[in-house]
Amino acid sequence: MLTIADRQYMSIGIMDLTQVQRRIARLQRELLELGPLHPGSITEQVNVCGQPGCRCKDPKKPQKHGPYYQLSFTWQGKGSTRFLRPEQVEPMRRKVANYKRLRELMNEWVSLGVELERAEREKRAGGD
Ligand SMILES: [Zn+2]
Question: Whole-angstrom Cα distance, residue 105 to residue 43?
């Protein structure tokens, strides 16, 4: 038995296939234009130290140390965390954003590939 969703798949026409292929071409162009990338996320921290009388423990207006920036990521099953120097923070933010975009583009490309394959299979099964 075919479900309604199956029938909709079978009705993917030549125009839709062309649109899907165009979308894939756009994804490929955007992938080529991605700059430097790095997995992970950046967190910002402030600290309180152990020094008696330090400004970070001022009872009225404590000024904590920092901010300190950390990059945390897992790659090939191994997790790492490292501090970033202030001048490394912005470039790393861009790399992390590029990596995120890479994953989005890849996921969309793969999804479209699966969809295309399924549409082609349905067409063959339909005996056209
Ligand atoms: Zn302190």
Answer: 25
- Please tell me the distance between residue 109's alpha carbon and the centre of ligand 1 in angstroms: 50
- C-alpha distances out from residue 11 to 14, 17, 98, 123, 124, Å: 10, 11, 36, 9, 12
Over residues 11-69, the pLDDT tens digits come to 455 558 888 889 999 999 999 999 999 999 999 999 999 899 999 999 999 999 999 99
CA distance 88 to 42: 11
Cα–Cα–Cα angle for 103, 104, 110, nearest 5°? 85
pTM of the model: 0.75
CA 66–ligand 1 middle distance (angstroms)? 10
What's the CA gap between 47 and 51, in Å, rounded? 12
